[in-house]
Specification:
64% helix, binds Muraymycin D2, mainly alpha
Amino acid sequence: MLYHFLYPLHSSLSAFNVFKYITFRSIGCAVTAFLLMLLLSPWFIKKLKQYQIGQVVRDDGPETHLAKTGVPTMGGVLILSSITISTLLWAQLTNPLVWLMLFVVLFFGCIGGIDDYQKISKKNSAGLSARGKILLQIFGASVVGLFVLLHPSYDGLLSIPFFKNVQPDLSWIYVLFAIFVIVGSSNAVNLTDGLDGLAAGPIVISASVYLVFSYLAGHIILAEYLQIPYVPGAGELAVFCGAMVGACLGFLWFNAYPAQIFMGDVGSLALGGALGGVAIIIKQEILLAIVGGIFVMEAISVIIQVVYFKISKGKRIFLMAPFHHHFEKKGWHESKVVVRFWIVSIILGLMAIATLKLR
Ligand code: 57M
């Protein structure tokens, strides 16, 4: 909005020229989202407590988690509001990719929100059925998949990090692939969100990396120079990623150990879906497995545990899955697990940036 109102004034005052620059608007967007979270969270936490929107903690998890019963949850509502407000303020609103991403983040947020609400309002409810949740997720993701398939600037080619000449053509199967990436990413972030700050930290890192890649993908000269797919208009997604970075940093302020608020499924499903969506739209799909390596590892740990549990008739590989519970059960303090996961996430983020040159 600011772009549309303030940039045209540059003819009378040249200072308004800055609103043309994606870099300036991405930073402005991140700062706005961060400040919104910082200013509104104390009020929001008070309201959640007042309406008794508190976490129901399972009693079969690590014992230390029982103390978390009643911690206000559904902080994702504020995260999504901050992302939406800041994106609407700073992005170029004539760009369809911006609206597509707002659709993804809000649609996945609604799925998580309904799930959270059912769990909280009927204390013993398991929330939305697994089948209902996955069908809704597939619907949301297929909107992105179909957009990419039908849009003239896209093709079904996959870009493989480190191998610039290997670009398999998936043709229409690309839609199924897009669904797999977005739904997978949404659920992987959801599984990761089990310790204070464990999901928000790696989301900040992943969204920062995708901010850089979105900017480059939307810049014809830089994209050609770096030999990454050029996607017209993708630069505006740097502004959207800026909103994700700022909002999650602001959330982390209150979600850091000991957490004053959890994001709930409304946050985790939406933010995971958004990362998957950006990866698809800017054609850096496989890169997500590196950038979001922590989320991938957590999801794989659950798959391995469940499969092994079934074929061995009750034996386990990890003390508990997802992976973070394994370390807690080994006696690591929650904060140690979280900070170490962040360290791995930062290293993976740097590796992802390195793929720009190592090809
Ligand atoms: C949700 N959510 C947390 C909070 C957060 C298939 C199976 C592996 C599924 C998995 C599962 O349900 N995972 C998704 C993970 C929950 O947090 C809420 O949920 C939102 C995210 N969806 O925002 O609202 C608990 O996580 C803790 N938490 C924090 N800090 C935070 O900032 O401490 C969350 C955010 C909160 C709080 O304690 O209550 C969750 O874990 O429920 N299931 C599991 O993860 C369970 N694992 C399991 O059953 N493993 C078995 C299987 C695989 C064979 C095994 O290894 O033997 C564990 N989860 C819990 N107890 N709580 C184990 C039992």
